[in-house]
Amino acid sequence: MTLERVLQGLATRFPAEDRVQPDLARIRLLTELLGDPQSAYPAVHLAGTNGKTSTARMVDSLLRAFGLRTGRYTSPHLQQVTERIVLDGQPLSEERFGALYDELQPYVELVDERTGTRMTFFEVLTGMAFAAFADAPVDAAVLETGLGGTWDATNVVAARTAVVLPVGLDHQNYLGTTLAEIAAEKAGIVHEGATVVLAAQQPEAAEVLLRRCAEVGATVAREGLEFGVVDRRTAVGGQLLDLQGLAGRYDEVFLPLHGAHQAANAAAALAAVEAFFGAADERLDLEVVRQGFSTVTSPGRLEVVRTSPTVVLDAAHNPHGMAATVAALTDAFAFTHLVAVVACLADKDVRTMLEILEPAVAAVVVTENGSPRAMDVDELRALAVEVFGEDRVSVEDRLDDALDTAIALVDQESEYGGAGVLVTGSVVTAGAARTLLNAR
Protein backbone atom coordinates (compact mmCIF):
# COMPACT_ATOMS: atom_id res chain seq x y z
CA MET A 1 0.00 0.00 0.00
CA THR A 2 2.92 2.36 0.75
CA LEU A 3 4.45 1.84 -2.69
CA GLU A 4 1.09 2.17 -4.43
CA ARG A 5 0.53 5.52 -2.71
CA VAL A 6 3.97 6.73 -3.80
CA LEU A 7 3.42 5.58 -7.38
CA GLN A 8 0.12 7.46 -7.48
CA GLY A 9 1.90 10.60 -6.33
CA LEU A 10 4.73 10.20 -8.84
CA ALA A 11 2.22 9.57 -11.63
CA THR A 12 0.94 13.14 -11.29
CA ARG A 13 4.34 14.46 -12.32
CA PHE A 14 5.02 14.82 -16.03
CA PRO A 15 7.86 12.88 -17.69
CA ALA A 16 11.15 14.68 -18.22
CA GLU A 17 10.77 14.53 -21.98
CA ASP A 18 7.56 16.58 -21.75
CA ARG A 19 9.28 19.55 -20.13
CA VAL A 20 8.76 22.90 -21.81
CA GLN A 21 12.48 23.64 -21.99
CA PRO A 22 15.60 21.87 -20.75
CA ASP A 23 17.01 23.27 -17.52
CA LEU A 24 18.43 22.17 -14.18
CA ALA A 25 16.76 24.90 -12.11
CA ARG A 26 14.28 22.63 -10.33
CA ILE A 27 16.72 19.87 -9.36
CA ARG A 28 19.34 22.45 -8.34
CA LEU A 29 16.87 24.19 -6.06
CA LEU A 30 15.80 20.86 -4.55
CA THR A 31 19.39 19.80 -3.84
CA GLU A 32 20.13 23.21 -2.30
CA LEU A 33 17.13 22.85 0.01
CA LEU A 34 18.33 19.37 0.97
CA GLY A 35 21.84 20.59 1.76
CA ASP A 36 23.45 19.39 -1.49
CA PRO A 37 23.49 15.65 -0.65
CA GLN A 38 25.02 14.88 -4.06
CA SER A 39 28.25 16.52 -2.87
CA ALA A 40 28.68 14.12 0.04
CA TYR A 41 30.33 11.34 -2.00
CA PRO A 42 32.42 10.86 -5.15
CA ALA A 43 30.58 9.57 -8.19
CA VAL A 44 30.99 7.68 -11.43
CA HIS A 45 28.60 9.20 -13.99
CA LEU A 46 27.50 7.27 -17.10
CA ALA A 47 25.91 8.43 -20.35
CA GLY A 48 25.45 6.87 -23.79
CA THR A 49 22.74 5.38 -25.95
CA ASN A 50 22.99 1.75 -24.85
CA GLY A 51 24.77 -0.23 -22.15
CA LYS A 52 24.49 2.26 -19.29
CA THR A 53 22.63 0.05 -16.84
CA SER A 54 24.78 -3.04 -17.43
CA THR A 55 27.97 -1.00 -17.14
CA ALA A 56 26.70 0.76 -14.03
CA ARG A 57 26.02 -2.62 -12.44
CA MET A 58 29.57 -3.73 -13.29
CA VAL A 59 31.11 -0.58 -11.82
CA ASP A 60 28.98 -1.03 -8.70
CA SER A 61 30.02 -4.68 -8.32
CA LEU A 62 33.70 -3.86 -8.74
CA LEU A 63 33.62 -1.03 -6.22
CA ARG A 64 31.86 -3.26 -3.68
CA ALA A 65 34.43 -6.01 -4.28
CA PHE A 66 37.07 -3.49 -3.19
CA GLY A 67 35.19 -2.89 0.05
CA LEU A 68 33.32 0.33 -0.75
CA ARG A 69 29.73 0.97 0.26
CA THR A 70 27.94 2.03 -2.92
CA GLY A 71 24.78 3.68 -4.10
CA ARG A 72 23.55 3.02 -7.64
CA TYR A 73 20.92 5.02 -9.52
CA THR A 74 19.72 3.69 -12.87
CA SER A 75 16.68 3.97 -15.13
CA PRO A 76 14.27 2.88 -16.35
CA HIS A 77 13.33 0.10 -13.97
CA LEU A 78 12.59 -3.38 -15.25
CA GLN A 79 9.82 -4.51 -12.92
CA GLN A 80 9.52 -2.18 -9.92
CA VAL A 81 10.46 1.45 -9.39
CA THR A 82 12.45 0.64 -6.24
CA GLU A 83 15.07 -1.02 -8.48
CA ARG A 84 16.26 2.43 -9.50
CA ILE A 85 17.80 3.30 -6.13
CA VAL A 86 20.20 0.63 -4.86
CA LEU A 87 22.34 0.53 -1.72
CA ASP A 88 25.11 -2.04 -1.44
CA GLY A 89 23.67 -4.03 -4.32
CA GLN A 90 20.12 -4.16 -2.92
CA PRO A 91 17.14 -2.03 -4.05
CA LEU A 92 15.55 0.12 -1.38
CA SER A 93 12.79 -1.66 0.50
CA GLU A 94 9.26 -0.48 -0.25
CA GLU A 95 9.09 0.94 3.29
CA ARG A 96 12.31 2.95 2.93
CA PHE A 97 11.34 4.09 -0.55
CA GLY A 98 8.00 5.36 0.78
CA ALA A 99 9.59 7.04 3.80
CA LEU A 100 12.14 8.77 1.59
CA TYR A 101 9.40 10.02 -0.72
CA ASP A 102 7.49 11.43 2.27
CA GLU A 103 10.61 13.08 3.67
CA LEU A 104 11.23 14.94 0.41
CA GLN A 105 7.66 15.99 -0.31
CA PRO A 106 7.72 19.34 1.58
CA TYR A 107 10.89 20.32 -0.30
CA VAL A 108 9.51 19.13 -3.65
CA GLU A 109 6.33 21.15 -3.12
CA LEU A 110 8.41 24.20 -2.23
CA VAL A 111 10.34 23.83 -5.50
CA ASP A 112 7.04 23.53 -7.38
CA GLU A 113 5.84 26.75 -5.76
CA ARG A 114 9.02 28.75 -6.25
CA THR A 115 9.67 27.77 -9.87
CA GLY A 116 6.07 27.74 -11.03
CA THR A 117 6.62 24.38 -12.74
CA ARG A 118 6.10 21.04 -11.05
CA MET A 119 9.15 18.83 -10.73
CA THR A 120 9.23 15.86 -13.07
CA PHE A 121 8.94 12.20 -12.14
CA PHE A 122 12.63 11.71 -12.87
CA GLU A 123 13.73 14.81 -10.98
CA VAL A 124 11.94 13.68 -7.82
CA LEU A 125 13.46 10.20 -8.05
CA THR A 126 16.89 11.72 -8.62
CA GLY A 127 16.54 13.85 -5.51
CA MET A 128 15.45 10.77 -3.57
CA ALA A 129 18.53 8.87 -4.75
CA PHE A 130 20.90 11.71 -3.78
CA ALA A 131 19.32 11.89 -0.32
CA ALA A 132 19.34 8.11 0.19
CA PHE A 133 23.03 7.90 -0.67
CA ALA A 134 23.94 10.76 1.69
CA ASP A 135 21.86 9.27 4.51
CA ALA A 136 23.43 5.81 4.16
CA PRO A 137 26.16 7.14 3.82
CA VAL A 138 27.89 5.67 0.77
CA ASP A 139 31.54 5.76 -0.18
CA ALA A 140 30.73 6.14 -3.89
CA ALA A 141 27.72 6.67 -6.12
CA VAL A 142 27.22 5.19 -9.59
CA LEU A 143 24.82 7.40 -11.55
CA GLU A 144 23.19 6.71 -14.91
CA THR A 145 21.72 9.57 -16.92
CA GLY A 146 18.06 9.25 -17.72
CA LEU A 147 18.03 11.18 -21.00
CA GLY A 148 20.99 12.85 -22.69
CA GLY A 149 23.46 14.39 -20.31
CA THR A 150 23.73 18.18 -20.29
CA TRP A 151 20.20 18.78 -19.02
CA ASP A 152 19.72 15.48 -17.26
CA ALA A 153 18.79 15.84 -13.59
CA THR A 154 21.78 13.73 -12.56
CA ASN A 155 24.11 16.34 -14.06
CA VAL A 156 24.03 18.54 -10.97
CA VAL A 157 26.83 16.17 -9.95
CA ALA A 158 30.22 17.20 -11.36
CA ALA A 159 31.65 13.68 -11.27
CA ARG A 160 35.41 13.23 -11.35
CA THR A 161 34.92 10.01 -13.31
CA ALA A 162 32.65 9.98 -16.37
CA VAL A 163 31.86 7.17 -18.78
CA VAL A 164 30.40 7.79 -22.24
CA LEU A 165 29.23 4.56 -23.82
CA PRO A 166 28.53 4.23 -27.58
CA VAL A 167 26.35 7.02 -28.93
CA GLY A 168 23.66 6.10 -31.45
CA LEU A 169 20.45 7.52 -32.84
CA ASP A 170 17.71 7.44 -30.21
CA HIS A 171 15.37 9.98 -28.59
CA GLN A 172 15.86 12.19 -31.66
CA ASN A 173 12.78 14.22 -30.74
CA TYR A 174 14.57 15.44 -27.64
CA LEU A 175 18.33 15.14 -28.19
CA GLY A 176 18.83 15.99 -31.86
CA THR A 177 18.58 14.32 -35.24
CA THR A 178 22.28 13.68 -35.89
CA LEU A 179 24.97 11.76 -34.06
CA ALA A 180 26.87 15.01 -33.50
CA GLU A 181 23.88 16.69 -31.86
CA ILE A 182 23.16 13.68 -29.64
CA ALA A 183 26.84 13.34 -28.71
CA ALA A 184 26.89 17.00 -27.70
CA GLU A 185 24.09 16.31 -25.22
CA LYS A 186 25.88 13.24 -23.82
CA ALA A 187 29.13 15.20 -23.56
CA GLY A 188 27.49 17.46 -21.00
CA ILE A 189 28.46 15.06 -18.19
CA VAL A 190 32.15 15.80 -18.86
CA HIS A 191 33.21 18.43 -16.32
CA GLU A 192 36.42 20.31 -15.73
CA GLY A 193 39.28 18.11 -14.62
CA ALA A 194 37.37 14.84 -14.93
CA THR A 195 38.73 11.56 -16.24
CA VAL A 196 36.54 10.39 -19.10
CA VAL A 197 36.30 6.75 -20.13
CA LEU A 198 35.27 6.90 -23.76
CA ALA A 199 33.84 3.79 -25.41
CA ALA A 200 34.39 3.22 -29.13
CA GLN A 201 32.40 5.82 -31.05
CA GLN A 202 31.49 6.59 -34.62
CA PRO A 203 33.74 9.40 -35.94
CA GLU A 204 30.98 12.00 -35.93
CA ALA A 205 30.29 11.41 -32.23
CA ALA A 206 33.94 10.95 -31.25
CA GLU A 207 34.88 14.36 -32.65
CA VAL A 208 32.26 16.10 -30.51
CA LEU A 209 33.15 14.19 -27.35
CA LEU A 210 36.90 14.74 -27.69
CA ARG A 211 36.38 18.44 -28.35
CA ARG A 212 34.37 18.72 -25.13
CA CYS A 213 37.13 16.95 -23.20
CA ALA A 214 39.71 19.35 -24.58
CA GLU A 215 37.57 22.40 -23.75
CA VAL A 216 37.24 21.48 -20.06
CA GLY A 217 40.68 19.95 -19.58
CA ALA A 218 39.43 16.42 -19.01
CA THR A 219 41.73 13.42 -19.20
CA VAL A 220 40.57 10.93 -21.83
CA ALA A 221 40.89 7.14 -21.85
CA ARG A 222 39.78 5.71 -25.19
CA GLU A 223 38.64 2.20 -25.95
CA GLY A 224 41.07 0.55 -28.33
CA LEU A 225 43.95 2.76 -27.20
CA GLU A 226 44.16 3.10 -23.41
CA PHE A 227 41.81 0.22 -22.59
CA GLY A 228 39.79 -2.50 -24.30
CA VAL A 229 39.01 -6.18 -24.79
CA VAL A 230 42.12 -8.17 -25.71
CA ASP A 231 40.37 -11.51 -26.07
CA ARG A 232 37.06 -13.13 -25.26
CA ARG A 233 35.91 -16.75 -25.26
CA THR A 234 32.39 -18.07 -24.82
CA ALA A 235 32.03 -19.93 -21.51
CA VAL A 236 29.21 -21.72 -19.73
CA GLY A 237 26.92 -19.03 -18.38
CA GLY A 238 28.84 -16.14 -19.88
CA GLN A 239 32.29 -15.40 -21.27
CA LEU A 240 35.96 -15.39 -20.28
CA LEU A 241 37.75 -12.12 -20.93
CA ASP A 242 41.28 -10.80 -21.18
CA LEU A 243 41.04 -7.07 -20.59
CA GLN A 244 43.51 -4.24 -21.06
CA GLY A 245 43.03 -1.71 -18.30
CA LEU A 246 44.58 1.69 -17.80
CA ALA A 247 47.32 0.19 -15.62
CA GLY A 248 47.86 -3.23 -17.13
CA ARG A 249 46.35 -6.54 -18.25
CA TYR A 250 43.61 -8.42 -16.43
CA ASP A 251 43.38 -11.95 -17.82
CA GLU A 252 40.98 -14.85 -17.26
CA VAL A 253 38.13 -12.64 -16.02
CA PHE A 254 34.78 -14.44 -16.02
CA LEU A 255 31.75 -12.30 -16.87
CA PRO A 256 28.37 -14.02 -16.43
CA LEU A 257 26.78 -12.00 -19.25
CA HIS A 258 26.58 -12.71 -22.97
CA GLY A 259 27.75 -10.82 -26.04
CA ALA A 260 30.66 -8.79 -27.36
CA HIS A 261 28.85 -5.63 -26.29
CA GLN A 262 28.92 -6.77 -22.66
CA ALA A 263 32.63 -7.51 -22.96
CA ALA A 264 33.16 -3.94 -24.17
CA ASN A 265 31.00 -2.68 -21.30
CA ALA A 266 33.21 -4.66 -18.90
CA ALA A 267 36.35 -3.02 -20.29
CA ALA A 268 34.79 0.42 -19.81
CA ALA A 269 33.66 -0.45 -16.28
CA LEU A 270 37.15 -1.64 -15.36
CA ALA A 271 38.76 1.53 -16.74
CA ALA A 272 36.22 3.64 -14.84
CA VAL A 273 37.04 1.92 -11.55
CA GLU A 274 40.77 2.30 -12.21
CA ALA A 275 40.20 6.00 -12.88
CA PHE A 276 38.04 6.31 -9.76
CA PHE A 277 40.84 4.90 -7.61
CA GLY A 278 43.47 6.91 -9.48
CA ALA A 279 45.19 3.66 -10.42
CA ALA A 280 46.65 4.72 -13.74
CA ASP A 281 50.14 3.41 -12.90
CA GLU A 282 49.49 0.39 -10.69
CA ARG A 283 47.21 -2.49 -11.65
CA LEU A 284 44.30 -3.23 -9.34
CA ASP A 285 44.30 -6.53 -7.46
CA LEU A 286 43.48 -9.11 -10.13
CA GLU A 287 41.68 -11.51 -7.81
CA VAL A 288 39.42 -8.76 -6.50
CA VAL A 289 38.64 -7.68 -10.07
CA ARG A 290 37.77 -11.27 -10.96
CA GLN A 291 35.56 -11.52 -7.90
CA GLY A 292 33.76 -8.28 -8.74
CA PHE A 293 32.98 -9.29 -12.30
CA SER A 294 31.96 -12.84 -11.36
CA THR A 295 28.98 -11.59 -9.34
CA VAL A 296 27.61 -9.16 -11.92
CA THR A 297 23.98 -9.56 -12.94
CA SER A 298 21.97 -7.56 -15.47
CA PRO A 299 18.34 -8.72 -15.50
CA GLY A 300 16.52 -8.40 -18.78
CA ARG A 301 19.73 -8.33 -20.82
CA LEU A 302 19.93 -11.63 -22.72
CA GLU A 303 18.62 -13.23 -19.54
CA VAL A 304 17.53 -16.87 -19.64
CA VAL A 305 14.40 -17.10 -17.49
CA ARG A 306 13.12 -20.53 -18.53
CA THR A 307 14.30 -23.77 -20.08
CA SER A 308 12.41 -26.44 -22.07
CA PRO A 309 11.97 -24.40 -24.16
CA THR A 310 14.58 -21.75 -23.50
CA VAL A 311 13.08 -18.28 -23.06
CA VAL A 312 15.46 -15.31 -23.27
CA LEU A 313 14.54 -11.76 -22.29
CA ASP A 314 16.32 -8.79 -23.80
CA ALA A 315 15.52 -5.12 -23.35
CA ALA A 316 16.82 -3.96 -26.78
CA HIS A 317 14.73 -0.91 -27.64
CA ASN A 318 16.52 0.78 -30.54
CA PRO A 319 18.43 -0.34 -33.65
CA HIS A 320 21.84 -0.12 -32.00
CA GLY A 321 20.68 -2.30 -29.13
CA MET A 322 18.92 -4.79 -31.40
CA ALA A 323 22.07 -5.23 -33.49
CA ALA A 324 24.02 -6.08 -30.34
CA THR A 325 21.33 -8.55 -29.29
CA VAL A 326 21.29 -10.35 -32.62
CA ALA A 327 25.08 -10.61 -32.66
CA ALA A 328 25.10 -11.99 -29.12
CA LEU A 329 22.42 -14.58 -29.93
CA THR A 330 24.67 -16.02 -32.62
CA ASP A 331 27.72 -15.81 -30.42
CA ALA A 332 26.39 -17.24 -27.15
CA PHE A 333 23.46 -19.50 -28.02
CA ALA A 334 22.98 -22.47 -30.34
CA PHE A 335 19.42 -21.77 -31.39
CA THR A 336 18.32 -23.55 -34.54
CA HIS A 337 14.70 -22.38 -34.36
CA LEU A 338 13.93 -19.09 -32.61
CA VAL A 339 10.57 -17.35 -32.26
CA ALA A 340 10.51 -13.71 -31.14
CA VAL A 341 7.86 -11.99 -29.07
CA VAL A 342 8.04 -8.29 -29.87
CA ALA A 343 6.35 -5.25 -28.35
CA CYS A 344 7.80 -1.78 -28.88
CA LEU A 345 7.19 1.84 -27.98
CA ALA A 346 5.67 3.96 -30.71
CA ASP A 347 8.40 6.63 -30.67
CA LYS A 348 11.17 4.19 -31.62
CA ASP A 349 12.60 3.23 -35.03
CA VAL A 350 10.62 0.00 -35.00
CA ARG A 351 10.98 -0.85 -38.67
CA THR A 352 14.77 -0.83 -38.49
CA MET A 353 14.69 -2.91 -35.31
CA LEU A 354 12.53 -5.51 -37.05
CA GLU A 355 14.79 -5.53 -40.11
CA ILE A 356 17.80 -6.24 -37.88
CA LEU A 357 15.93 -8.99 -36.02
CA GLU A 358 14.48 -10.70 -39.09
CA PRO A 359 17.44 -12.89 -40.15
CA ALA A 360 17.82 -14.26 -36.62
CA VAL A 361 14.32 -15.64 -36.05
CA ALA A 362 11.98 -18.06 -37.78
CA ALA A 363 8.80 -16.26 -36.77
CA VAL A 364 7.58 -13.31 -34.74
CA VAL A 365 4.61 -12.81 -32.43
CA VAL A 366 3.72 -9.12 -32.13
CA THR A 367 1.85 -7.75 -29.15
CA GLU A 368 1.59 -4.77 -26.76
CA ASN A 369 3.42 -4.29 -23.47
CA GLY A 370 0.95 -2.18 -21.46
CA SER A 371 2.90 1.08 -21.67
CA PRO A 372 0.91 4.24 -22.55
CA ARG A 373 3.59 4.80 -25.21
CA ALA A 374 3.24 1.31 -26.71
CA MET A 375 2.88 0.97 -30.46
CA ASP A 376 -0.59 -0.20 -31.42
CA VAL A 377 -0.54 -3.92 -32.14
CA ASP A 378 -2.16 -3.49 -35.56
CA GLU A 379 0.45 -0.91 -36.57
CA LEU A 380 3.21 -3.20 -35.33
CA ARG A 381 1.70 -6.13 -37.20
CA ALA A 382 1.65 -4.13 -40.45
CA LEU A 383 5.35 -3.31 -40.08
CA ALA A 384 6.19 -6.89 -39.18
CA VAL A 385 4.35 -8.27 -42.21
CA GLU A 386 6.30 -5.93 -44.48
CA VAL A 387 9.59 -7.15 -42.99
CA PHE A 388 8.89 -10.84 -42.25
CA GLY A 389 6.05 -11.73 -44.62
CA GLU A 390 2.51 -12.70 -43.67
CA ASP A 391 3.25 -16.36 -42.96
CA ARG A 392 5.90 -15.59 -40.32
CA VAL A 393 3.83 -13.15 -38.25
CA SER A 394 1.33 -13.93 -35.49
CA VAL A 395 -0.61 -11.37 -33.48
CA GLU A 396 -1.79 -11.35 -29.86
CA ASP A 397 -3.30 -8.36 -28.09
CA ARG A 398 -1.89 -9.41 -24.70
CA LEU A 399 1.68 -10.19 -23.75
CA ASP A 400 0.77 -13.29 -21.76
CA ASP A 401 -1.08 -14.71 -24.77
CA ALA A 402 1.87 -13.82 -27.00
CA LEU A 403 4.22 -15.77 -24.73
CA ASP A 404 1.93 -18.79 -24.86
CA THR A 405 1.68 -18.57 -28.65
CA ALA A 406 5.45 -18.33 -29.08
CA ILE A 407 6.07 -21.28 -26.76
CA ALA A 408 3.45 -23.30 -28.63
CA LEU A 409 5.11 -22.47 -31.95
CA VAL A 410 8.44 -23.63 -30.59
CA ASP A 411 6.94 -26.82 -29.14
CA GLN A 412 5.56 -27.67 -32.59
CA GLU A 413 9.14 -27.77 -33.85
CA SER A 414 10.10 -30.65 -31.57
CA GLU A 415 12.67 -31.88 -34.05
CA TYR A 416 14.71 -28.77 -33.36
CA GLY A 417 16.76 -29.39 -30.24
CA GLY A 418 17.85 -25.75 -30.21
CA ALA A 419 14.41 -24.17 -30.22
CA GLY A 420 13.78 -21.09 -28.12
CA VAL A 421 11.83 -17.88 -27.56
CA LEU A 422 13.26 -14.35 -27.49
CA VAL A 423 11.20 -11.60 -25.83
CA THR A 424 12.38 -8.15 -26.89
CA GLY A 425 11.58 -4.68 -28.22
CA SER A 426 11.51 -2.60 -25.04
CA VAL A 427 12.61 -2.48 -21.42
CA VAL A 428 8.89 -2.45 -20.58
CA THR A 429 8.36 -5.63 -22.60
CA ALA A 430 11.24 -7.46 -20.94
CA GLY A 431 10.12 -6.37 -17.49
CA ALA A 432 6.50 -7.34 -18.01
CA ALA A 433 7.48 -10.73 -19.43
CA ARG A 434 9.82 -11.31 -16.49
CA THR A 435 6.98 -10.63 -14.07
CA LEU A 436 4.61 -12.95 -15.93
CA LEU A 437 7.11 -15.79 -16.21
CA ASN A 438 8.26 -15.48 -12.60
CA ALA A 439 4.63 -15.56 -11.45
CA ARG A 440 4.12 -18.79 -13.36
Number of separate domains: 2
Helical content class: 40-55%
Could you give the distance between the termini?
23 Å
DSSP, total strands = 17
Structural class: alpha/beta
Biggest sheet descriptor: 8 strands, mixed
Mean pLDDT: 93
CATH superfamily of the largest domain: Mur-like, catalytic domain
Query: What is the name of the CATH class of the largest domain?
Result: Alpha Beta
Low-confidence stretches: none
Strand content: 15-25%
Which sequence of strands runs across the widest sheet?
4-3-2-5-1-6-7-8
Counted by DSSP, the helix tally is 15
- Assign an overall shape: globular
Report the CATH topology name of the largest domain: UDP-N-acetylmuramoyl-L-alanine:D-glutamate ligase
Oligomer: single chain
Rg over CA atoms, rounded to whole Å, is 21 Å
The CATH architecture of the largest domain can be named as 3-Layer(aba) Sandwich
Q: How does this structure look, described?
A:
With 440 residues, this protein is α/β, with parallel strands linked by helices. It folds into two domains: 2-294, 3-Layer(aba) Sandwich (UDP-N-acetylmuramoyl-L-alanine:D-glutamate ligase); 303-439, Mur ligase, C-terminal domain (Protein-Tyrosine Phosphatase, Chain A, Alpha-Beta Complex). The protein has 15 helices and 17 strands. It has helices spanning 2-11, 25-33, 52-65, 94-115, 121-135, 172-175, 179-186, 203-216, 260-277, 286-294, 319-332, 350-357, 377-388, 399-412, 427-439; strands at 43-47, 70-73, 85-87, 90-91, 140-144, 161-164, 195-198, 219-222, 228-235, 238-244, 249-255, 303-306, 310-313, 337-342, 363-366, 393-395, 419-424. α2 (25-33) packs across α4, α4 crosses α5 (121-135) and α12 packs across α13.
